[in-house]
Amino acid sequence: MELGDAWGRVATDLRVSLTDRCNLRCSYCMPAEGLAWLPGEEVLTDDEVVRLVDIATRLLGVRAVRFTGGEPLVRRGLVPIIAATSALDQRPEIAMTTNGLGLARTAPALAAAGLDRINVSLDTIRPDTFATITRRDRIADVLEGLRAAQHAGITPIKVNAVLLRGINDDQAPELLAWAMAEGHQLRFIEQMPLDAQHAWHREAMITADETLTLLEKEHVLTPITEGRGAAPAEEFLVDGGPATVGIIASVTRPFCGACNRVRLTADGQVRNCLFARTESDLRTPLRDGATDQELAALWVQAVLPKLPGHGIDDPAFLQPARPMSAIGG
Ligand code: SAM
Ligand code: SF4
What we know:
The protein is α/β, with parallel strands linked by helices. It is built from ten helices and 14 strands.
């Protein structure tokens, strides 16, 4: 079996949200007061997560798993879940997307458990701008976490940044200079309409082209991406290399046609797209005693109707009911 859809795409990259909770409040993601978190009994247990990842990798052709959230580092069972994933019959590549808070403490255990790759989200290297965007004065913890991940050998680290008009859009070159000095691979991501507050509007978004213009004020960028395939980032050599910078134009140059992703929420719902308006429940059948084969068949059915694109530019576009933090970014 495989996770194919009617448009010929096959999902081999699974994003697993381990929690909808977070210790930051990034303005493009969550309101200051946070959200109504999922009740504990609705969240998949560690064993349930690992069972579904096993089914995805052994029966459905999934080759890469990324743990995300919410903030995956606040999930108590994170290290055991990664260790169990690493011990699966069909071991996938194991990655995590994190805000880095608490990474300093956990990085050695994550590396030992089998974490292969890490993406750390950081939109600025200025403490005051960090506090404005995330509503928490915690940049020192992120920088410490990055150093610990490097020390633990989980490298190269990808750093994800979102530029916000009037807040950090003037800081793109300095963020790149910092990333190059630290040996991190920086990628700028266009802001998407996935915030819980539904405050996104197109004019406020810093487009990929604007980001390039901002960077080209100080650097010569040479495109190196020949057919990005399923990789969303367009990569550029900075000043002839070897350093690179990536631009993820999710809104203005969507890569839906090559999408190979499928998502599992913390409460056990399959989403065939970040922007899907429907979900397929695996938790109920799983808890009712469904076999691996039955769960795999349900998963196949969940991916089949995946739409050809996210349709953000369609006048009829409706933001999904759940925000990014609950879907798993
Ligand atoms: N808490 C972790 C973190 O921040 O890396 C993992 C979850 S977070 C939802 C995953 C990624 O989504 C982060 O890189 C974050 O910057 C990004 N993100 C959140 N809301 C977004 C939005 N509205 N548009 C674009 N990216 C967004
Ligand atoms: Fe938390 Fe990540 Fe959302 Fe920021 S982007 S509020 S760190 S889940």
